[in-house]
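Apologies for my clumsy wording, but could you write out the amino acids of a protein and the tokens describing how it folds?
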Amino acid sequence: MANSQSNNALMLAVIFLACTLNLGFGEIRYSIPEELERGTFVGNVAEDLGLNVRQLSARKCRLVSADGRQYLEVNLETGVLFVNERIDRELLCAQAPTCILAFQIIIENPLEMHRGEVEILDVNDNSPGFPESAIVLQMAESIAAGSRFPLESALDPDVGTNTVTDYKISPNEHFGLKVRTREDSTKIAELLLEKPLDRERQASFQLILTALDGGIPHRSGTIQISIIVLDINDNAPVFEHEVYRASLMENAPLGTLVMRVNAVDRDQGTNAELKYSFTNLVSQRARELFILDPETGEVRVQELLDFEEANNYELDVQAVDNGSPAIAGHSKVLIKLIDMNDNAPEITLTSLSSKVSENAAPGTVIALIDVMDRDSGANGQVHCQIPTEMPLKLQSILKGHYKLITSGVLDRETAPLYNIPVLARDSGSPPLSTNKTIQILVSDVNDNAPRFSRPVYTVYVMENNAPGASISVVTAFDPDLDQNSYVSYSLKGNLQNSPVSTYLNVNSMNGTIYALRSFDYEHLKTFQVQVQARDAGVPPLSSSATVNVIILDQNDNAPLIVSPSARSGSAAGEVVPQSADQGYLVTKIIATDADSGQNARLSYQILQATDPTLFAVARHSGQIRTMRSISEQDETTQRLVVVVRDNGQPSLSSTVTIFLLILANVTEKISETSNLVSNPGYSSDLNLYLIVAFGSTSFIFLVTIVLLVGVKCHQDRNIIQGHWAPVCCCRPMNSKDIFTRAPAPTDPLNYTGTAQNIPFPESYHYSVCLSPESSKSEFLFLKPYNPPAPQGQC
């Protein structure tokens, strides 16, 4: 009980006096005795590191140890470092002179790492003990005074002053005790014969050997020494060297000869026959690694050596003669191992952020990496690196500690994933290396606007399309991820002073464009709209593309006959002189078509004719000419039905009926022309009677009419809204003038029912200076005069 209280007092004193703080380079160091109770205060890491206690929990402060055992823990409320588990120094560090418990304190947001060490101080909690229960020694009576006999050493798991520091032997007149210190600072006891033995006076001795440690209070252990005094063999074997030294590579193969020990015995015969062996001072591990040949004294390697396990061995050997009693001589073999580069570096990730944003600033910490090598010297010097072509780099923070940080701009669209090979290479010869791959995912930010597959789309739509039908699809691609890549479509702009949404609609999800109304080529031939693609990022990004919509013409308009103008409701009339020769231009049919292209390409054909052999129409120009000379036997009234067809699919057509009046004198009065047109069935006899009846009257007015025509011959009129435009010529007509054309007016002809200006067709010069209708309307009846069209030039 007293020992326990004294130990507790010692531990508290050591805690108070030994707790120290190392402020350099983010390191802290404490010292505590072993065997402290759970919860014992070690130090305040928050104060020692200058940390904010209130942020320890929020910043996920944690303590990480190399072996994974949580001997220590941090109170996140107070920042106090306390003992979390019972610490047994002997179990943790064995016989090492210094026992260090290393740990790391990792704090996130931002990521920080601090290194700490706690030195575990030894407490004298173990008493010295002997491996055997008793020591039996046989001594010849002839052994001279001053002889020494090594005794079995006591073992104490404690270290420093708490281990064995002294030996005592029970009082007697023959034997004393000599204590000496080995090179490894351990104490060994040798029994010293101070006075020669006399077996006849005393044949045996019983002594008590006591081992004492240097702890406070002292602890001790005892063993009984039984000494038997023998006769005869009074010379002990003697080794050539008191200490044998050897150096050995740690990778020495099995069976390698370390050295050969040799001893001699001055006795003769069986008393000089020697056997070599290890003494009890040699550890079990050393006996497993090395073997001593009892006959030759050769020490050889029998198991693989490891410098990192132990770098030197001390083997106590003895040579025992075959005398009776046997006498042993003692020596020691010191073996020093030479380190080989047989351990590759070890890479440990102490912290890792598996995801990093692509807009992370240069210098952002991604991972903390520890690198160590169990070899020593140059073999244990490690260099760590990663490929230089990545936008990442390793930065050393402490010896063997690195942080992986960003060194450039990340772009998830270019590299969404980085497999970072970390290479750790030591400085041995040959060097050894270790690779460890760290996988980093780059998280997306909305840094890319949607991109259309092309900047301009051209869409062709046939007019008279069905409303609601799809006319095109636009596609935009966003290389971002998730909602940053979700694209929606919309239309922008106005069309004919109306929102474009009244004409078109676009599916916001897939970019399909629909027509909301039926288009008419004759009113709208082309238009342009803007399609906008917007992603769902925050903030959203957008881009636009142009859609050119071209309306294709459909043959939905029949030809419109402009000239000759139909009178009396359904037919047109023309006068043909009986003297007309073959090829005489009777009239020209002028028609237009509101369609375009092939749909507006017109052709002309006579469907019906009173005499099919007399007149013909030009297929493409619409000119009606005589196919032969007019004879007196031909009927004076000819009826032609001409069809005008366009070249569309299917073709549309219009017809015009023309009544041709053949007169011998085209200047005589034509009575009731409108009745002829409206009643084409009048017989030719009735026409003949009328001509004879009014012939004389027409002759009287002929001179007057010719004079008036001379005045009017300078006027040229066009057919506008059902009025005739007389065309005159001031020179006599000959056969060549029949086909002579006058220049076409430059002004376009506008007519009701079409949205276009129709170029006025070519005019022609005729030999007749006055039509019967104009004669009737302007000269004979003197009707009110409308404003004339622009005058022509004869």
